[in-house]
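re: ur question from yesterday

yeah so i grabbed the chain u mentioned. its 109 aa long if i counted rite. heres the sequnce exactly as i have it in my notes:
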Amino acid sequence: MDIWLGLLAAPAAVLATQSIDYALIRLACASGAEWPMHAVSAAAFLFCAFAAWLAYGRWRAECSIGAPAYTRRIARTGFFALMAMIVGALSALIQLAMWFPQWLLPACR
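ran it thru and got these structure tokens back, copy pasting raw so excuse formatting
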């Protein structure tokens, strides 16, 4: 499950956050409170970072150097864990880049 969080759930969380932030623009303009948009973006960033951290832990467990060199290992799980770590970290970076303009620009412009 920790691999699939990084591969599928992290990019889906970034896309869902963008849709939710667009829906919250009207609320931010009407009430002047921008904190719901920041809360959604922060939660998505933390989720993506957590998914990348879980995938990193799985990758480290799969690529342990404790196994002898003559034993056969299946590299598929380690490869998927590495890709989940990369996709999760990239999703966290993209979410951070999408969150940054919310700090600088007002919501009602």
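noticed a couple things. The first helix runs from residue 2 to 31. also The radius of gyration is 18 Å.
anyway ttyl
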